[in-house]
Amino acid sequence: MAMLDILLLFLVGNVLGFVLETLYCYLLTGKYVSRRGVVYGPFNQIYGFGAVLMTLLLKSLAEKSLPALFIGSAVLGGIFEIGCSLFQEKTYGTVSWEYSGQRFAFFGGRTSLKFMFFWGILGTVYIGVLHPILFAFFGRIPLSVKAPVVLALTLFLIYDLWLSYVAVGRWRKRLCGTPGSGRLDAWLDEKFTDERMKKLYPAMRAADRGNSASGSRKKTMRKMWGG
């Protein structure tokens, strides 16, 4: 499996995941809710990484049986959610999902049986149906077109991920009352205001677990986030 196709899969997974989660939220709420993972573009990197992981780790299960593929997808999806939740909490001091109110929630609400079931369905459909279609399509794209497009989009997404990281970090500091320092902070304060960030990341909340922020700062962040 060519690295170029893996990168293309990551990019496509970002977009498909954004569309899927946006539709899911629309069906639940009846309105558009931003499900981006980055500040620019229709990308949700969790699904990009998820598509790559499923391709690398679950493809062999498709040759065994559908139940094996479903269970493998559910377990991998649950572990992946736990890992992403831990990474976000340790990196930003925030969380974007928390399932402790559900029955059969695990690891402090980082995943749940309900969403592992959804991951099982998603992985089964992806590996069993979408994967062969996508890679057949990737194979038809001329290398002279594929290589520069994938390279350009990958570089843009790397920049987008970095910018999202610093924008969320600066947003978090503003909510804690930390004044900016330097040109980058001034630019972030101007371009990525609290109002804009709330629209971009409506589900993001300050983490209540661990030592990512002091008690007083957590209270301030929850209050200003509306939590």
Describe the structure using short key phrases.
227 residues, mainly alpha, two-stranded antiparallel sheet, 4 strands
Structural features, described:
It comes from Eisenbergiella tayi. With 227 residues, the protein is mainly α. It is built from eight helices and four strands, in the order αααβββααααβα. The chain has helices at residues 3-29, 45-58, 66-92, 113-140, 143-175, 183-191, 194-200, 215-225, and strands at 94-95, 105-106, 111-112, 205-206. Helix 2 (45-58) packs across helix 3 and helix 2 (45-58) crosses helix 4 (113-140).
Which sequence of strands runs across the widest sheet? 1-4
Mean pLDDT: 88
Residue ranges: pLDDT <50 for 5 or more in a row?
210-225
Secondary structure class reads mainly alpha
Distance between the termini: 45 Å
Number of helices: 8
Instruction: Give helix and strand order, one letter per element, not per position.
Output: HHHEEEHHHHEH
- In terms of quaternary structure, what is this? single chain
Major sheet = 2 strands, antiparallel
Please give the number of β-strands.
4
Q: Estimate nothing, just give the exact number of structural domains.
A: 1
What is the alpha-carbon Rg in Å?
A: 19 Å
Sum up the overall morphology in one term: globular
In percent terms, what proportion of residues is strand? under 5%
Helix content: 55-70%
Transmembrane segments: 6-27, 39-62, 68-87, 116-137, 149-168
Keywords: Membrane, Transmembrane, Transmembrane helix
Region (Disordered): 207-227
Protein name: ABC transporter permease
